[in-house]
Specification:
elongated, 297 residues, seven-stranded antiparallel beta sheet, single chain, Alpha-D-Glucose-1,6-Bisphosphate, Chain A, domain 4, alpha+beta
Length: 297
């Protein structure tokens, strides 16, 4: 009975995942909240296990293991979504088991869960999608050297931020293009995407940026890069532009990187903070990269 319930839960989850993907809803709460909730409810109602939460979590683990090869997902997406899947599965497992045992108060949470699962469907948003994150560094170099570093192709190093190091985020490998005049472009190549899909092969990833605003004086400057093409982060967020400002300070030059983006995944209360933190780390990485170049000149 238990095995049949687990199998049914996984089969139902796969069918729903495919249906949501076909409908373009794979980045909504209906996917990331609805599927683990479906797994937990199906297991509790069909298998009737003694430990509903444990079985729901075990079934979710099997589902996540199968999601990569069958749904062609990447490692980063699965790792980031895993805590949300486990949390929803555990919560719904507890509520379903309580309701089955006569605790009808648990059913009060059903409308709230349904509301949360609808975020991202039909334009429903709890938190605005557009956001920005940035960082400011002080560089031991004159503003002219900072401007020269920004105008040249950067030399990328390894990530230092723990969050970027802990997960297999794409890493910039090389950049071509130079200049800070309006119309100047950069083409950045990243490590290839390695999907967990069956028979999949690594696919190249890159990002193209173009200068759309540029002003500078002897002591300060501002340049704005628009993202014109992106096959690197587009599966996870919509990066729009990078705004860089610098000005003379007591310690040399103060430089700020701010990245503007739109969140594409829901629920917002989960993916919003995760994406903001990752973008802030990325802004810090870029700031330190160009700071190192300026100080080395």
């Amino acid at each position: 009975m238990l095995l049949a319930g687990i199998t049914l839960a996984l089969f139902a989850a796969m069918l729903v995942a495919e249906a949501l993907g076909s409908a373009g809803l794979e980045e909504t709460s209906l996917f990331y909240v609805g599927i683990p909730a479906l797994i937990a409810v199906t297991v509790v109602l069909t298998a009737r296990p003694k430990n509903a939460v444990g079985v729901a979590l075990a079934t979710t683990t099997v589902g996540l293991a199968l999601a990569g090869p069958l749904l062609d997902e990447g490692v980063v997406c699965l790792l980031i979504a895993a805590p949300l899947f486990y949390g929803v599965a555990a919560l719904v497992g507890l509520l379903a088991q309580a309701a089955r045992g006569g605790g009808h108060r648990a059913l009060v949470a059903a409308p709230l869960l349904a509301l949360i699962a609808l975020e991202g469907v039909g334009g429903v948003n709890l938190i605005p999608r557009h956001d920005n994150a940035g960082t400011t560094v002080t560089i031991g170099a004159a503003p002219a050297r900072v401007e020269a570093a920004l105008a040249a192709p950067p030399e990328f190093g390894p990530y230092e931020a723990p969050f970027l190091r802990a997960l297999p985020f794409p890493k910039p490998v090389r950049a071509t293009g130079s200049g800070l005049s309006v119309g100047d472009a950069r083409l950045i190549a990243f490590t290839p995407r390695r999907s967990l899909g069956l028979g999949s092969t690594p696919t190249p990833r890159s990002m193209e940026l173009r200068v759309v605003e540029s002003t500078s004086t002897a002591d300060a400057g501002r340049v704005v890069f628009d993202v014109t093409a992106d096959s690197t982060l587009a599966r996870w967020l919509d990066l729009r532009r990078a705004v860089v400002t610098w000005s003379a300070s007591a310690g040399g030059t103060e430089m700020t990187w701010r990245l503007e983006y739109a969140r594409t995944f829901d629920p917002s209360w989960y993916f919003g903070p995760v994406q903001h933190h990752a973008v802030a780390d990325a802004a810090g990485y870029l700031a330190e990269t160009f700071a190192d170049t300026a100080e080395a000149e």
